[in-house]
Amino acid sequence: MSSAIIQLLVLAGIAIFLILRLRSVLGTREGFEKPPVQVPGPAEKKRNGRPEFDVIEGGPDRDIIDHVKDGSEAAKALAAMKMAEPGFGVGEFLEGARGAYEMILMAFEAGDIDDVRGFLAPDVAQTFDEVIAQRKAEGLSIQASFIGVREVTLTNATFDRDTRMGEVSVRFIGELTSVVRDETGAIVEGNPNEIKRQRDVWTFAREMGADDPNWHLVATGE
Questions:
Q1: How far is the C-alpha of 113 from the C-alpha of 216, rounded, in Å?
Q2: Most exposed: 8, 13, 28, 151, by fewest CB within 10 Å?
Q3: What is the pLDDT of residues 179-212, one digit of tens each?
Q4: Which domains does the chain possess?
Q5: Of the candidates 137, 82, 130, which has an alpha carbon nearest to the alpha carbon of residue 108?
């Protein structure tokens, strides 16, 4: 027998040996094969052979109850505003109110509210105009510098379902330096080196769902 035939027989024997070893380790797959068993996940259970999933109930809206008491009339009003305008967020509103407070307050202190008139209700704008006019008539002017806002707190909220008008009242505590000067420039009130705290409660209103995204200042107080 030639050496070539002997080599073929040896190789064939090795191949048969390897196939038998693989079959013994891996097994064979013939005919119907059951699908792999799926292990239920954390929220999945089995009932009557069918998967069942736990329903996770929605909790309180943190965007609301972080600012007002859960279940309060203010919380209900804010929830109604969100239903009327799904994109409305209380936290985002308060950030905008913070910026509006500084902008409107400093415009009033400077005696020129033209740039912020679009954010004021007509009666509020009229009151500001009257105070500014009286100040000018007396020869007085205010020199102010805004330091920052120490507190922004939502104090109340209402919503009229018929008019879709929402109102939110916010308490601000701002810090600024302010002096009143007469026509000669002499200080008649205040200290330019003293930081004073300004406390205000402002109420903003807007028709929820309207195209105009701007809130308007409709009332001021302390």
A1: 14
A2: 28
A3: 999 999 999 999 999 999 999 999 999 999 999 9
A4: 63-221 (3.10.450.240)
A5: 130
- Among 7-21, 48-62, 122-136, the range scoring the smallest mean pLDDT is 7-21
Mean pLDDT is lowest, of 31-40, 135-144, 151-160, for: 31-40
How far apart are alpha carbons 144 and 166 in whole angstroms? Answer: 32
Residue given tokens 């107080």 in the structure block:
221
pLDDT single digits (tens) 121-140 = 999 999 999 999 999 999 99
Q: Which of 60, 97, 90 is nearest to 201 (CA)?
A: 97
Tokens coding 177: 């330096």
Q: Mutual orientation of helices 90-110 and 122-137 as an angle, nearest 10°?
A: 30
Structure-token pair, residue 14: 């090795």
Q: Cα(211)–Cα(52) distance, rounded to whole angstroms?
A: 44
Give every CB contact of residue 150 below 8 A, 6+ residues apart in sequence.
Answer: 173, 174, 175, 197
CB atoms within 10 A of CB 99: 10
Which is nearest to 107 in space by CA: 96, 119, 95, 97? 119
